[in-house]
Amino acid sequence: MSKILAKAADLGYQRNLLASNLRKNRTNTIGVIVPRISRHFFSSAIEGIEQTAFESGYNVIICQSLEELKRERNLIDSMLANRVAGVLISVSMETTDYDHLLGLKKNGTPILFFDRHCEIPGNSNVIIDDFQSGFNATEHLISNGCKIIAHFSGPQELKIYQNRLRGYRVALEKHKIPYHPELVFTSRLMEEDGMENAKKIMSMGVNIDGIFAANDVSAIGAMKYLKREGVKIPEDIAIVGFSNEPISEVIEPSLTTIDQSGHKIGKLATELLLKQIKKESGSIRPETVILETLLIARDSSKHLSTANK
Amino acid sequence: MSKILAKAADLGYQRNLLASNLRKNRTNTIGVIVPRISRHFFSSAIEGIEQTAFESGYNVIICQSLEELKRERNLIDSMLANRVAGVLISVSMETTDYDHLLGLKKNGTPILFFDRHCEIPGNSNVIIDDFQSGFNATEHLISNGCKIIAHFSGPQELKIYQNRLRGYRVALEKHKIPYHPELVFTSRLMEEDGMENAKKIMSMGVNIDGIFAANDVSAIGAMKYLKREGVKIPEDIAIVGFSNEPISEVIEPSLTTIDQSGHKIGKLATELLLKQIKKESGSIRPETVILETLLIARDSSKHLSTANK
DNA sequence: CTGTTAGCGCGTTCAT
DNA sequence: ATGAACGCGCTAACAG
Q: In angstroms, how far is CA B89 from the centroid of its own chain?
């Protein structure tokens, strides 16, 4: 009788998904682990993830590792205990040991890496072409007349920063510009690091006229410092940075950015994960999607002044 | 015997929290609903929420209403079905009818509003002092010599924008500046609206020399437009905007901002919610925390030029 | 098509 | 202390 259902709805009955999931031995929850939710790249990725998951009837548990391996392990355990249908992760900068991640796979839970991937074979990834982006960024600076180009990188434990650095080196090489390790600065992805690095290049006694910043936080920190010091961008120093979308244009209308859409990455990652979830877990075959990034050159018409040495 | 436990761990046993929660008839999951995850205020609030919840052993399900009432209803239903321990919400701009929210309370699930609250009595809220912030922002512009001050508001359905507007009006009144409704522009919280509004004030034939932007998106949009048009900030037009933290300083080192820490609001909201969850649900008494905001005046030493009419 | 039943994995209770 | 058994609310399988 549907009368019963009507009465139930009337009484405010709400079916218990916990019981349902327990019985069916599956959940409609996707676990997401990112280093920090508030970093714009990740929050926009999460936005794409949530939206895509919601459309397929999935919920999303969001957690942050705060760049700590210990926390990441903890979170993976909690996700296993909650029997999530699959996991999307951008690993912490401390993640050099992958046992906890492999544990998930052993369990049959699909896991997919986005943006910050690990080089363990047999994994699915949705990533950008870090090498090419680094190459393009550097070449752009060169073709705008920059002669001495610094590189603000990120933690070298992360493959993405290794690859971006490689792009930088190969671009220099192609254009017969010598590579100087002293011009490469790493950071722990804090704004202060970017400021610190900018300060360093100013006091090096070398006329650096270009910076390729491989992470937005460094770019912002550097920009803050340089602006305060009265350095003109891009006239004195041209910067190409990975974009933190809402700021890139306002911050400095002439800033050239590598546009890496978090939303798009999140969407694609979720679609791929859902495909894996819906298949029998046995038949998951790893798949890697490499997205192209877009270099948005806003300074193309403003060539560097030839006054630069 | 703990030998059994050891063997269990060895076999990769993971206790099933679904079954545990079903049995105990409670979960350690907090539901969070925000309009858009990627807006910086919300992502930093979520960061605070996740961090605080994690420390108390709670998970966080994050959802976005995308400003749609229909989706919000949907999400609340889903949270009820998942038997979340409590809900933190910043309502959508379409939320003028509160049945779905009251449904939660009837169920005994604590619900707490943060930032965007509703004026239904008997609720718990963690909010900022919108009236005072609006008042301070406007008075700051006045005391820096602004004579004709526009206000970029947000959707008037939301109490927070009504209150900020009220602060603006009262400040004008106090300083005997006439209030002109034509100088108040609303927006749907899109950057384009901010640009559109900036365009309007430029073509009004009135010498507007100050803008109080009650939402960061408007401030950014306006700034983009004005910079493109060659308007000097704050010399030609001074702006006070609610801050989108990572940009405020870089965007325009002289921009004055109302600093509204999402992280802090998220942390406090979660602490309060957890307190309510841990009590017997019968004894929840509504509590409202009103946080003060900080006006960070970066243009205090740069008074407007008297050349402004 | 409708009605009944077993059991998902845990925590609680009651009996040893 | 240790163990056995029940039931949380649901769904799938099976019977009528």
A: 10
Neighbours of B291 (CB within 10 A): 17
Query: Between chains, do B77 and A228 touch, taking CB under 8 Å as contact?
Result: no
Least CB–CB distance from A253: residue in B54, B106, B228: B228
Asked whether the beta carbons of B219 and B164 are under 8 A apart, the reply is no
In the structure encoding, which two tokens stand for residue B168, read together?
A: 């603006």
User: Residues B178-221: pLDDT tens digits?
Assistant: 999 999 999 998 888 989 999 999 998 888 989 999 988 888 88
Q: How far does the CA of A85 sit from the C1' of D13, in Å?
A: 25
pLDDT of residue B281: 57
Phi and psi dihedrals of A290, rounded to 5? Answer: -110, 115
Q: Which amino acid is at A300?
A: S
Q: Do A38 and B40 touch (CB under 8 A)?
A: yes
The answer to whether the beta carbon of residue A23 comes closer than 7 angstroms to any atom of strand D is yes
Specify which residue's alpha carbon is closest to the C1' of nucleotide D9: A19
Q: Do residues B114 and B90 lie in contact, with contact meaning Cβ atoms separated by under 8 Å?
A: yes
In single-letter form, the type of residue at position A190 comes to: M
pLDDT tens figures, A81-128: 999 999 999 999 999 889 899 888 888 899 999 999 998 888 899 999
- Report the residue from A44, A80, A246 with minimal CB separation from B14: A80
**Chain B residue numbers touching A190 (CB-CB < 8 A):** none
Q: Nearest-CA neighbor of A207 among A59, A307, A87?
A: A307
Side-chain-side CA neighbours of residue A253 (13 Å): 12
Least confident of A88-97, B7-16, B141-150, B259-268: B7-16
